[in-house]
Write a structure and sequence with these properties.
The protein has 227 residues and is α+β, with helices and mostly antiparallel strands. The chain has 8 helices and 5 strands; from the N terminus they run H-H-E-E-E-E-E-H-H-H-H-H-H. Strands 1-2-3-4-5 form a 5-stranded antiparallel sheet, covered by helices on one side. A hairpin with a 6-residue loop joins strand 3 and strand 4. Helix 4 packs antiparallel against helix 5 and helix 5 packs antiparallel against helix 6. It is elongated.
């Protein structure tokens, strides 16, 4: 085991500073992509309507971690970097600190799996296609976050009738829910429906307000850029 790996293993569970050390070894291979690191999250900067990147996810084994590729729409209120979209990538067994080929393995899987996914969701059309697949995957069961996002994406795309269809579908399904976060979600969709019926610009302005707040909540202010 190298001195680098010995240092990473000191003190038990891998911490964010160890993630930073790993990323410093990887970063030279990905120059020019605008990748920056914040905690366990390596993402493309600047961020606009979406944040896209890879996340070094904690594992039960204190000497291991998972690598996850993901994106999040920032114009939907978010309290943290969640794993609503994306997936774990690579062979989990590779992400053991004592693996002598750790850096090479990570570099390869980022190049062959993470970057193609991140490129596929680099446009509004690509994001819509991805979220549609998420909604359709378990239909008629679905994740309410996915449907909420799909409705908002339709508004962003100018497809207002489709947006209203998804908003009303979701509202019907959530009508009798009493969980606080679901009530918040239902109220958001009602607000957006009201604003959309008022004017598309009113709905888009609400998205901008939510995006500004989400960027602050996630601590991404200095990475914020154009849409």
């Amino acid at each position: 085991m190298s001195q680098f790996q010995d240092w990473l293993l000191e003190g038990g569970r891998m911490k964010t500073k160890e993630v930073a050390v790993i990323w410093r070894k990887l970063a030279p291979s990905f120059q020019g992509l605008g990748l920056v690191i914040k905690g366990r999250f390596v993402f493309i900067s600047p961020v606009g309507d979406f944040v896209r990147g890879v996340y070094f996810e904690e594992a039960f084994d204190s000497t291991a971690f998972y690598l996850r590729v993901l994106f999040l729409p920032l114009f939907v209120p978010q309290e943290c970097i969640s794993f609503i979209h994306g997936e774990r990538i690579g062979d989990n067994l590779l992400w053991k600190i004592e693996n002598p080929d750790l850096i090479d393995n990570l570099r390869a899987v980022i190049q062959t799996q993470a970057l193609p996914f991140l490129e596929s969701v680099s446009t509004l059309a690509g994001v819509i296609a991805c979220v549609e697949k998420d909604v359709e995957r378990g239909w008629p069961r679905y994740n309410s976050h996915h449907m909420e996002e799909l409705a908002y994406l339709c508004i962003k795309n100018g497809d207002h009738s489709e947006a209203l269809k998804w908003l009303r579908h979701l509202q019907r399904d959530l009508e009798n829910e009493t969980t606080p976060w679901i009530i918040d979600q239902r109220n958001r969709t009602r607000l957006i429906e009201t604003k959309l019926l008022e004017s598309p610009e009113a709905a888009l302005n609400q998205f901008e307000d939510w995006k500004k707040q989400t960027i602050i909540t996630l601590g991404l202010e200095k990475y914020a850029g154009a849409n």
